[in-house]
Amino acid sequence: MVHTLGCRLNQSESQMLRDRLASAGYLVVPFGQPADLGIINTCTVTREADSKCRKSIRQFIAQNPEAYTAVIGCYSQMGTAEIAGIPGVDLIVGNQDKFAVLEHIDQGKNERPVILRERISRADFTLSHVGDIPFDKRANLKVQDGCDFMCSFCIIPFARGQARSREWENTLDEARTAVARGIKELVLTGVNVGTYNNSGHGIVDLVDALNDIPGLLHVRISSIEPTTVPIDLLDRMADPKHNLLPFLHLPLQSGSDPVLALMRRKYSMNEYKAFVEEAIRRVPGLCLGTDIMVGFTGESEADFEETCKQFLELPFAYTHVFPFSEREGTLVMKREDGWVPMEERSRRCTRLRRLSSMKRHDFMEAHSGKEALVLLEDPRDGGFPGYTANYIRVRVGNPGHDIRNQLVRVRLGKIRADWMEAEILEFIN
Ligand code: SF4
After folding, report:
1. What pLDDT sits at residue 121?
2. How many Å apart are CA 66 and CA 112, to the nearest integer?
């Protein structure tokens, strides 16, 4: 059992561990089923994340008291002592040696946990992967780790270390292996993907090399920091012959300049807006999404109103909304005033989430009746769901045979809550 908490990068690393375990002959079961081995891949982005990790660890041990229990990842890196205090944990591995967990799992249970927590290296890295397990879903491809940006609310540069990239050939090798396994869409993941740089190759070189892999139909970038997107990347998104999809998740965090400065973000609102206008001008049908954090220390009611106004005015299709959560070790914790009460943070979250639903609806409405390409996923609720190239969730009816992992051209129809009905016009691949 490999259980994941947190971000897409953790999901990608967990999948790699599952593949390696399966390749070594293990039967990998979901969280909640009896298991002899549990690997819990943790997150430490907020205090609540820490607490969820502790709950999952305790739950696994209570259900599987004889199982070898390993805890890996960001919370292992930052909260080693707290995890070591949970009875039944056998191994704690920080982020540097995350994959070394597999070298320890055949040992018996320990009276006290073994702790492997090294300083995180600055060097670029390789990851070994296995190629003999069929996989017919969209898959994550880890290309980068760590971040040097030091936003004042963020613990990630401490938990995952400084920015470094996956070695070029090793990255492409996994992409080719993924395609040989039946994967048609890859989502590029990392902490700060736009800073990818290995042996002279940047993010644009990487998407171009992925475009040259026969059978790889779609490449999506999960999220990318606003100041790191080269204009050439937009041109690749705009090119219908390129497999890079027209999707840009560009974290804004706040629409107010004073708050952006307090957050130590690397752009002003004017710079962000100018970039977005350029992106919309260059990429037809672009889906622009973002992350916004509300209730940050020092965010006044007027700052929040400004964020709502900017969110409504800019051509966003949606935002993910997060309430600010205090995190020991981050720069903002040095402040003594300006804390926004929790109830106010949650009020701001609710308001902005409502605005996001409205904008998502508007984005879908603007596409009703249009054609789109969709890679279909596993059947659900009587149909086959999928995402359009520009990230609208759709579902086509079940034709009575298996059409998962097929690329189809559809016509978009009615809006249903946060997804759209779609009718298949053509099977492409
Ligand atoms: S860019 Fe800022 S928010 Fe994102 S990981 Fe780096 S420090 Fe954290």
Report:
1. 87
2. 14
Q: Which fold has domain 371-427?
A: OB fold (Dihydrolipoamide Acetyltransferase, E2P) (2.40.50)
The CATH fold of domain 139-367: pyruvate-formate lyase- activating enzyme (3.80.30)
- Calculate how far, in angstroms, residue 293's C-alpha sits from the geometric centre of ligand 1: 12
Ligand 1 pocket residue status of 145, Cβ below 6 Å: no
Q: 229: closest CA among 204, 252, 212, 261? A: 204
Give me the mean pLDDT over the 134-161 stretch: 90
Residue ranges per domain, the chain? 2-116, 139-367, 371-427
Q: Residues 386-402: pLDDT tens digits?
A: 999 999 999 999 988 99
Mean pLDDT of 345-367: 97
**H-type alpha helices, 64-102:** 74-78, 80-84
Question: Residues 369, 411: contact at Cβ < 8 Å?
Answer: yes
Two structure tokens written together for 97? 């040696």
Per-chain mean pLDDT for the chain:
94
Kindly report the protein residue whose alpha carbon is nearest to atom 1 of ligand 1. 149
Rounded to the nearest angstrom, the distance between the alpha carbon of 153 and the centre of ligand 1 is 8
- Give the whole-number percent of the chain exceeding pLDDT 70: 98
How many whole angstroms from 251 Cα to the centroid of ligand 1? 10
Q: Is 50 in the pocket of ligand 1 (CB under 6 A)?
A: no
Does residue 253 line the site of ligand 1, with CB under 6 A? Answer: no
